[in-house]
Design a protein that fits this description.
Elements: E1 45-50, E2 57-59, E3 64-68, E4 80-81, E5 95-102, E6 105-110, E7 117-119, E8 122-123, E9 130-132, E10 137-140, E11 143-150
Parallel strand pairs: 3-4
Antiparallel strand pairs: 1-2, 1-11, 3-5, 5-6, 6-9, 7-8, 7-10, 10-11
Length: 160
């Protein structure tokens, strides 16, 4: 067979048509979270790598995890206090953003912060949730962090 418009051969040497090659079965990937996934299992933890810091934070989020910085005047204490990471100097609000859990996914929400929250470089609209995925970059003011989903058991690890 030959294409009538461009004269390209449409069959191989033995006369079989050149259809799409069927790939070998790669196994069932349904239910297995992969990098970039939005799926967050009930037993999963969130691993947060803050730029220019040593050890990552390991967090088991509940329904909502509020991130911000401690303020001794108002006695505001967020669930995840970023004060040890120069949060005040980097423009992190006292109640800056939250990570919310719903079913098997997480979303991030800017809480009306003064210096905005960014997800993978895109500025979030305050109070509008955006899906959080494994490997995403979050920026609260100038404080940059990467978040990862860990789906294994954490025996011996410090979980917040």
């Amino acid at each position: 067979m030959i294409c009538s418009k461009c004269s390209t051969q449409l069959t191989d040497e033995v006369g079989d048509s050149l259809g799409t090659r069927e790939l070998d079965d790669q196994g069932d990937s349904i239910g297995k979270p992969h990098w970039g996934t939005a799926r967050f299992n009930p037993t999963s933890v969130l691993v947060i790598h803050i730029r220019d810091s040593g050890e990552p934070l390991v967090v088991r989020p509940g329904d909502e995890l509020v991130m911000g910085r401690y303020d001794p005047v108002s006695r505001t204490v967020p669930d995840l206090d970023l004060s040890p990471y120069n949060a005040m100097e980097k423009g992190v609000s006292r109640l800056h953003a939250s990570i919310r859990r719903q079913d098997d996914s997480l979303s991030v929400v800017d809480l009306g912060s003064a210096n905005s929250t960014y997800l993978n470089g895109q500025r979030l609209i305050p109070h509008q949730p955006r899906v959080l995925r494994d490997g995403d970059e979050l920026r609260l003011g100038l404080l940059v962090m990467h978040v990862y989903f860990r789906h294994d058991t954490l025996e011996g690890a410090d979980v917040i």
